[in-house]
Specification:
With 205 residues, the protein is an alpha+beta fold. It is 60% helix and 19% strand. Helix 1 crosses helix 4 (128-143) and helix 2 runs antiparallel to helix 3 (92-125). Bound molecules: zinc ion.
Length: 205
C-alpha cells in the first residue's frame, strides 16, 4: 500500500500521518428575541501531523505534575498559616477555628489531588491508538482557524463520521445528529471505492 508523504501542519516535517477532517460550521443568526443556530458541513480538509508533534502534545496533555505542584503550594501556604495562627493566638475558640480551616484545607487538597490523578490516568489509560488519533485531531483543530466570517468552525475526523458512533459525536461536538447522518451519507457516496485505502491509512503507526 502506497502511503503518500505530506508536510506536518505544525512543524513542516514530512510525515505519513494524514488526516481527513470534516469542517463543521455553526452559524448564529442573532434575532430580535432569540438566536437561531444553523449548522452545516464545511470543507473537507486533508492535512497531516507528524509523530513528534503528537508526542509533544500528548506529553503536555497528560502531564499532571505541574498542576499538582501548584495545588500543593497553595494548600501548604494556607495550612502553615493556620498552624502559625494556632500557635500564636492563645484563644481557644480561635484555635478551634484554625484547626477546622486546616482540616478543610487538607481534605480539599486530597480531593483535588485525586481528581488530577484520575484525569491524567484517563488520558493515559485510553486505548493508545485511539488516544493518539483523538489527540492528533485535537492538535490539528488548534492549528486550523476556529472562525470563518460568522461561522464557528470545528473539525472532526472523517473516519469517525464514517465508522464511529454519531450519537457520541453529536454530543461531543454539540452538532446536529441529523446533519451528521447526512454528512456520513455524503462521505460514503463518493468514497466507496476508496474505502479500503481509508481503512489502511487511518491508523497511525
Ligand atoms: Zn510536526
Amino acid at each position: 500500500m502506497e502511503n503518500k508523504i505530506s508536510n506536518c501542519k505544525k512543524c513542516g516535517a514530512p510525515t505519513e500521518n494524514q488526516f481527513e477532517l470534516v469542517t463543521l460550521k455553526t452559524m448564529v443568526d442573532r434575532g430580535f428575541r432569540k438566536n437561531k443556530y444553523y449548522q452545516a458541513m464545511g470543507d473537507i480538509i486533508h492535512t497531516a501531523i507528524c509523530d513528534d508533534c503528537i508526542d509533544e502534545f500528548i506529553a503536555k496533555s497528560s502531564n499532571s505534575s505541574k498542576q499538582i505542584l501548584k495545588l500543593s503550594l497553595l494548600s501548604l501556604i494556607v495550612f502553615i498559616g493556620c498552624i502559625v495562627l494556632f500557635l500564636v493566638v492563645p484563644i481557644t475558640a480561635f484555635r478551634v477555628f484554625c484547626a477546622i480551616i486546616a482540616g478543610i484545607t487538607v481534605l480539599a487538597f486530597l480531593q483535588e489531588f485525586n481528581n488530577i490523578k484520575k484525569q491524567a490516568k484517563e488520558i493515559n489509560n485510553k486505548n493508545e491508538k485511539e488516544n493518539r488519533n483523538t489527540l492528533a485531531v485535537k492538535l490539528l483543530s488548534k492549528l486550523l482557524p476556529d472562525r470563518h466570517n460568522d461561522a464557528e468552525l470545528a473539525y472532526v475526523d472523517a473516519y469517525l463520521i464514517k465508522k464511529g458512533d454519531l450519537n457520541i459525536l453529536a454530543k461531543e461536538y454539540g452538532f446536529s445528529y441529523k446533519k451528521l447522518v447526512q454528512i456520513k451519507n455524503f462521505l460514503k457516496e463518493g468514497k466507496d471505492n476508496q474505502q479500503l485505502d481509508d481503512d489502511a491509512n487511518h491508523q497511525l503507526k
